TrEMBL record:
Gene: trpF
CDD domains in alphabetical order: PRAI
Recorded catalytic activity of this chain's protein: N-(5-phospho-beta-D-ribosyl)anthranilate = 1-(2-carboxyphenylamino)-1-deoxy-D-ribulose 5-phosphate
Pathway as given in its UniProt record: Amino-acid biosynthesis; L-tryptophan biosynthesis; L-tryptophan from chorismate: step 3/5
HAMAP family for this protein: PRAI
Superkingdom classification of source: Bacteria
UniProt organism field: Chitinophaga agrisoli
EC number, UniProt record: 5.3.1.24
Name of the featured protein: N-(5'-phosphoribosyl)anthranilate isomerase
UniProt KW Amino-acid biosynthesis keyword: yes
Length: 211
């Protein structure tokens, strides 16, 4: 598996700068008020906007279109990740202003065909773990064997409970549409506070095996 890396739930400028240094491809900012990683008020928007060399992803849950547009402008977001129950029509509207990653929470079983309406209105899917009422950042992993029956060429990010110990097993995945690995709470010392040494080691491990 050769894939890009996204580190989600960034709330500190120093962490964002370090991700650039490590060659991480995507940094995620959570714009969902109920998340302990809610970025607003923690990360200076203007300073974040200045940062280059990494794609900044805004993560939203059923947000107003204008809220998303304002965040794109204020933080210089490159992509928008929709982590709630957003419809294909909503995704299409967002996609007029930024590329869209549509997240789906995967449970014990999956009906891939149900995702088909989102293919023409998104750039990527992201598969996270269904865990009660939580939308994301749960640290729980779903059964990756389910991905073996993914029937589309539409590219996807793999997410949900990925930790430092998974670098080796990620290497074993032979999934043509898998383009990126998304990590979050398993690399934290507290919500929104990343253990950057652990992140760096993980990036080095994945890169050394894949590039
Ligand atoms: O991280 C959150 O708090 C969060 C809250 C609401 C919606 C999405 C959220 N995170 C989105 C992500 O992309 C996470 O990286 C993904 O859920 C995986 O998290 P984890 O299982 O902790 O690795």
């Amino acid at each position: 598996m050769e894939s890009f890396i996204k580190v989600c739930g960034i709330t500190q400028l120093a962490d964002l700068q370090a991700l650039v240094q490590y060659g991480v491809d995507y940094a995620g900012f959570i714009f969902y008020e109920k998340s302990p990683r809610f970025v607003t008020g923690k990360l200076d928007a203007a300073a974040a906007k200045e940062i280059t060399g990494i794609k900044k992803v805004g993560v939203f849950v059923d947000a107003d279109l204008q809220v998303v547009k304002d965040a794109i402008h204020n933080y210089g977001l490159s992509l928008v990740q929709l982590h709630g129950n957003e419809t294909p029509a909503y995704c299409a509207a967002i996609r007029e202003v930024a590329p869209v990653i549509k997240a789906f929470r995967i449970g014990a079983q999956v009906n891939w065909q149900q995702l088909e309406p989102w293919i023409p209105v998104t750039d990527y899917f992201l598969f996270d773990t269904a865990a009660g009422k939580a939308y994301g950042g749960t640290g729980q992993q779903f059964n990756w064997d389910l991905l073996g029956s993914y029937p589309f060429a539409h590219p996807f990010f793999l997410s949900g409970g990925i930790g430092p110990e998974h670098a080796a097993s990620l290497q074993q995945l032979q999934l043509p549409a898998l383009v990126a690995v998304d990590v979050n709470s398993c690399f934290e010392t507290a919500p929104g506070i990343k253990d950057m040494q652990q992140v760096q080691a993980f990036v080095q491990q994945l890169r050394s095996q894949t590039k």
